[in-house]
Fold:
Amino acid sequence: MKVVLLERVENLGGIGDVVQVKDGFARNYLLPRSKALRATSSNLKVFEAERAQIEARNEKNRAEAARQGEGLDGKTYVLIRQAGETGQLYGSVSARDISDAILAEGGKVERSQVSLDKPIKTLGVHPVKVRLHAEVSVTVNVNIARSADEAERQARGEDVIASQFDEERQLAAEQAQDMIEGGAGQQDGFGETD
Structure:
């Protein structure tokens, strides 16, 4: 189906472009969201007559998104989740969880604006792209930790999983050294029969 775009659509084109798309994409996404019109001769005439208004509206929306993005860009949101010793989450963090965290701190982001290729399933600080407008996107950091203390350590750049293993390894080495020094495992007349 041929459509004329009313706003910039990623990987498709800009305002006024006439593009060929699959029928389902046009019917289920572009047309219901007023991102495009069918490319009929009457719709093309209507578009050309209203082109200045459409471009002005798009510029206004872009400027609003850019203003909103200034407050979000680079900001860090902490999510406390349960995880195993290896840092693997027992669940996952989805776009909805991230948008809820942003909303809780006063931001205004819809779930559909959060761009996640796949859910986050590990502890750590993860950069996440948020599309506020077709031409405006910002990156927020999502700090996923098991506790507030762990989140602070991760924010400072510490790898909490690696440091946890190092602490456990050091503790085991100290315990082994204490056992050797204390004579554990040595036979000093015990078990000997006369």
